[in-house]
Design a protein that fits this description.
The protein is an alpha+beta fold. It contains seven helices and five strands. It folds into two domains: 5-80, Ubiquitin-like (UB roll) (Roll); 90-154, DNA polymerase, domain 1, CATH 1.10.150.120. The chain has a five-stranded mixed beta sheet with strand order 2-1-5-3-4, with helices on both faces. Helix 4 crosses helix 7. It is elongated, with a radius of gyration of 16 Å. It starts with a strand and ends with a helix.
């Protein structure tokens, strides 16, 4: 008989976390339900909305599409760790200052997408910004303020 739960050790926000997980549990489910890291949101659960974005070894990924048992001890960074010891990261502060946060549900996914972008390109163009957030859905905005916030942070605001 096949075991349905396994012990899983995840490297989340620079801390090793050991938990018992279903073999079919997604990384999103384990982050939210087992580790109580609820900043990562469950949106579409099909990998198209970006609400569940996390960084995996510095690369932006959809946590709803990954099995937790397949992640192993690779470095996972969630929105809870983005600011570090500061109250807000530069990306978070830029979004707040630009008034780019409305209901807030999609905000963690945008923060993660922009954090990944700025980690690889500190002065992205408008086209690069738009490409970086193209996988994130927001039902409240027209994305204008989100792009403006990123452009201000990049120092390329018109």
């Amino acid at each position: 008989m096949r075991e349905h739960n396994v012990r899983c050790t995840l490297n989340v926000n620079a801390t090793m976390r050991d938990t018992l997980v279903r073999v079919d549990a997604t990384l999103l489910e384990v982050l939210r339900e087992n580790l109580d890291l609820t900043g990562t949101k469950r949106g579409c659960n099909h990998g198209v909305c970006g609400a569940c974005n996390v960084l995996l070894d510095g690369t932006l990924v959809r946590s709803c599409l990954m099995l937790a048992v397949d992640v192993g001890e690779r470095a996972i960074v969630t929105v809870e760790a983005v600011a570090g010891a500061r109250p807000f990261s530069d990306v978070q502060r830029a979004l707040i200052d630009a008034g780019a946060i409305q209901c807030g549900f999609c905000t963690p996914g945008f923060v993660m997408a922009l954090t990944a972008l700025f980690a690889h390109d500190p002065r992205p163009t408008r086209a690069a910004i738009r490409a970086a957030i193209s996988g994130n859905l927001c039902r409240c905005s027209g994305y204008v303020k989100i792009v403006e916030a990123a452009e201000r942070l990049a120092g390329v605001a018109p």
